[in-house]
Write the structure tokens for this entry.
Amino acid sequence: MTAEHPNTHRALPSNAAPLQVLEKQIYRGPNLYGYRPMIRIQLQLGALEEYPSNRLPGFTEGLLEQLPTLSQHGCSYGEPGGFVRRLQDGTWLGHITEHVALELQALAGLPVTYGKTRSVRGSPGSYNVVYEQREERVGLLAGMLALRLVNSLLPAELQGLEGLDLLMPVGMNTTLETDSPFDLQRDMAELRLLVRRHALGPTTASLVDEARRRGIPHLRLDDNSLVQLGYGRSQQRIRASITQQTAHIATETAGDKSLTKLLLDRAGLPVPAGAVVLTAEQAVREARRIGYPVVTKPLNGNHGRGVSIDLTTPERVAWGFEQAARHSRHVVVEQQFPGNDHRILVVNGEVVAVAERVPAHVIGDGRRSIRQLVEETNLDPRRGDGHEQVMTKIVIDDHVLALLARQGLTPDSVPQQDEVMVLRDTANLSTGGTAIDRTDVIHPDNVTVARRAALMIGLDVAGIDFITPDITQSVHRTGGGIVEVNAAPGFRMHLQPSVGTPRNVAAPVLDMLFPPGTPCRIPVVAITGTNGKTTTSRMVAHILQHAGKQVGLTTSNGIYLQGERIMSGDTTGPKSAQVILSDPTVEVAVLETARGGILREGLGFDQCQVGAVLNIRPDHLGLKGIETVEDLAFVKGLVVEVVSPSGVSVLNADDPLTARMVKKAGGQIAFFSMEGAVTHPEHLAQHIAAGGIALVREPTLVGDEVVLYRGGQRYPIMLANDIPATLSGAARMNVENALAACAIAVGLDVPVSVIGEALRTFTTSFEQSPGRLNVYEGHPFRVLLDYAHNPDGLMQLSGLVRAMRPQAGRVIGVFGVAGDRRDQDIHEMGTLLAGMFDLLILREDDERRGRPAGEGASLTRDGALAAGLPDEQIQIILDETEAIDAALSSAQPGDLVVILPNRVEEAWQQIQAFQSPSLQVERPA
């Protein structure tokens, strides 16, 4: 928060404006506020700006009564009770909302701790409330409930909320009304329901948390539990404890209890005698053959559903058949082993945890009924409604009623003191059972049996259900054996047993998926800046492909896999990055990373091997709080902040804002410079002298040379003129882009010889670099197509146009401006255009961004007129297709037509297809 206001004493207003939610933002990766997924809520406090917590009578006491666990928040003091001190000293409602949103998520089962609240520059009373989230829908609803709670504690004359609907999670099926009276218990039930529906379950979450501890990145691929660990070719996928290595045939085998038993029996492992039946009569007949007691269960079932044990009469067997038949047409009748129920977890052929499972039960006190004892048991905070807690609440359902009835009891019966009332036949945690860790005491013979069972079925992760009177004794002496082998076993009972030592069973799974020395990442290259991002990204991808790598590339023109476009459009945001990172064929990801995606969602990756900031120029200012070039540098600098310690940050030594990023850039610094050899800025000279990496343009008698400095040595790479994309050195912007691309390639350990060879084959053809300095020679006049769209881009282009200007001919230009530029920027671009063109045709950009039709063209025209371009040499044709046609139609042999389009591909097709009715020149095929 900003500095606290002095505690003034003013009367409460009678008609205060309510709290307002102005904006919300969901950050799914590293962002301007932190390096983790977060939610941002922009609040306007209105009159409440004058009322910190210590000026609101009873507020602090009421808040702590509702959420006593807030007393554990350290806040700026870094120790429990710190936040309470802030409340007592006086802090603002935005800051309070942040802490409440964090605590509500923790109470719902998703513990989070990081948040910050800052005032919005230039907007008194507005605050950005930012807090961590592990599931964005839960985070949004927690923010909404936090505001409702804070509002409910205000004096009546200060209450009121506007814009709360912004925080309602998309697609949430709820009866919660944003204007209904606040009820913490009811609203928390909605939040917990959202956690159960959308948060990762305990097994998947444990694997993701273990991956995070090891620095292994993860991507959630669906709304359930399909998660990718690692990037690109180095990825492994999991769904709960099913891994990418789990054989389908093994899973199918484990799901067929009859086949499982057959295979285990053939292997000489102890399994109960039994058979598969289709009718109750067959079940009774098999029970008599096997001998009582018997167990009935579905052939294909899980979580103990439909399982009945201790069946000792034909009537009970028939009843058990009916219970199982509800879940499967085929029912298993088998011998009941004596003893206790154990789950042995086998990972990669090794036993890693053992838990004794105790069926759901209550212990009598001679006073309360079974129903009352169940209600008390369910008050244990470790019990939840699903799988999200350590244990599950006990539910009195038909199975419980039948079990009690067999003993002549009902839920209203009162057990005697210390009498144990077992409420389930099975010991599954999902039906209210408990778990006791037995990992350290299992007998070696039992370990061998469990290991062999998992290997016989073929499961990399297996849950062996093992019945034995004493797990510390050999099953070969005590009797008992394997009653089931489970694919996708739950980890909950091992991670947090009711009694005993918790076991980190996720660790051996990660050891199996990523053995020592196995990569979990691919090199990620993130390239940002105001100008040159797309061309530099394409150059880097071209170099890496030349080096034999499978490359995934995102650009403003589309997504490419090994040079083949798989998706078109502006794909410079985090979602596009994750398309590449989730592709299992990609060895290196080259990601053009734009300002808009960073502001909208954060980065699409947690860290990169090489981050590059090419330049910072005035563009898109005045949007989303980015008012100055310094603000823009702060946004784009995030790319080098997340460079890994072993990586490389590539920075433009000639750009003061970029060069200054060395203070926060990760990894090793690599500078590039167009002017370093001439002016030798002090920071570059010192960097080279210290043995740092630098790519510098150095003039020679035969042309500019691209030179690498590294480790105090000088390595010439090639002449800039030999890079086709530089148009024999005239396209200075591509000389600079080539320097950046070389620096990035060096950061990826590409040999210098390979870099030079690759750049000699990189051209500005439309096929290699669409929309970037594409020259068409198929008409009697030349056509240059480029995407320059801001003052700095136009300034660079003007130098090339001067070099290309025909001896006897005109230069005709087509240009349009996006509506999100400031008036002063549009006017400046008009000034630059006046110096480039003899005929300027102004079109309308597709993105007017709220501007009236023609306003952008008119402002550009004003700038051109002010710079001295005569009015008769300016035309306004708003439709882009018509504007391009007019330029091409007006061109004469020897002219140069420069088209700066919005729709690049359509414009190129139009250029190629153009037939001048006056010239009637035959076009080449």
Notes: Residues 136-152 form the longest helix (17 residues). The domain at 774-913 is CATH 3.90.190.20 (Protein-Tyrosine Phosphatase; Chain A). The CA atoms of residues 547 and 754 lie 6 Å apart. The chain is about 35% helix and 20% strand.
